[in-house]
Amino acid sequence: MTDRYLPAVPREFALLEREPLAVGLRRLTVEQFDRLLVGLGDGVDLDWFVHETRKATKRVRAVLRLVRSEIGERAYAAENAILRDAARLLAPMRDDRVLALSVEGLRGRYRSALNPAAFGELERRLTERALDRREQVVRSGALDQVAMVLRSARVRYAAWPVPGDPTVGLYGRKPVKDRFSSIADGLDATYRRGRHEMKAALAHGVPEEVHAWRKRVKYLRHQTEALVPLFPDVLAGSVTALEHLGELLGSDHDLAVLIDEVERSPHLCPDPFERSLLIALARHRRRELLDASAVIGRRIYAEPPKQFVARLSEYWDVSHSADTPPRGLW
To answer: How far is CA 73 from each of CA 29, 68, 77, 80, 285, rounded to the nearest angstrom?
Structure first.
């Protein structure tokens, strides 16, 4: 029988139905590292590798936050810092390219009111700088450093204990317990902090506060994505909404960085009129993006944190109940 309750998004990063937490989270994290390591080699696509490394490290860091209370603060802090610092090594390869794309996006959005050549010199200079920084990163050996971090992390995460492992109990090694309380604190912290930072971001529109909110949105998205099997018909939609919100906030962040870069380095856009026009359009677009983010964000964070966690706890209980048939039999 065809399952009519199909998820709205692919389960690329999700637990399997009734999969024990320790088993599922180990599988998900190891898969992230495997995908990156398979793509490494002499013919590696650097743009792909940078993008996928940033995405993979965010997903694994979201998992770490999810089980932070289970694995302990020391282990969490160490693993989080290792993955964060590895991703930062590759950041210069992305930053200027993203700024050039932001300029291109502004020109396309407001093309009916602009000279076709508007901001062309700025885009050219940013693109050239991006290529220069790309070469600097390659020459610095950052790719080899990141590859080493990924290989080492893959070994550590593959050794996360699961029930039945012979190492369980040795040196204090215990698997993450297969119960909702193992992830309840992590969900509460991610949701609560995101809700708080949303209020600050929407109240002031300060780029740093908006960026802080964006990071919490991404963590909540990946945590929700992993838990989609608890109630696919609802949580898959939540993942889609969080992804959309993250894209809006990401575009806002890129424009905020562009404004700051042009104001600090006016030689990038030497014509004062063109520079003023660019900044005005970027600020106008930021306002549009924040307005759209407010609509989605207030819906996503409509519940108080305790209510949000309680709702997912109910999903967990129903999905793990012996009275609940496998979804394929519905």
So the answer is: 19, 7, 6, 10, 40
Q: For a pLDDT cut of 90, what percent of the chain falls above it?
A: 74
Q: Residue 242 class from Cβ within 10 Å (0-12 exposed, 13-18 middle, 19+ buried)?
A: buried
Quote the pLDDT of residue 52: 92
- 48 contacts 36 by C-beta, under 8 angstroms: no
Q: In whole angstroms, how large is the CA radius of gyration of the chain?
A: 22
User: Residue 17, by phi and psi: left (phi above 0), alpha (psi -120 to 50) or beta?
Assistant: beta
- For 48, the token pair is 């792909």
Please name the amino acid found at residue 82: I
Confidence of residue 12 (pLDDT cuts 50, 70, 90): confident
Taking only the tens place, the pLDDT of each residue in 130-183 is 999 889 988 999 989 999 999 999 999 999 888 877 766 655 567 899 999 999
Cα 44-50-55 angle, rounded to 5 deg: 125
Write down how long the chain is.
330
Q: Hey, what amino acid is at 249?
A: L
Question: Residue 54: which of 183, 215, 213, 194 has the closest Cα?
Answer: 215
**DSSP conformation letters of 80-112:** HHHHHHHHHHHTHHHHHHHHHHHHHHHHHHTGG
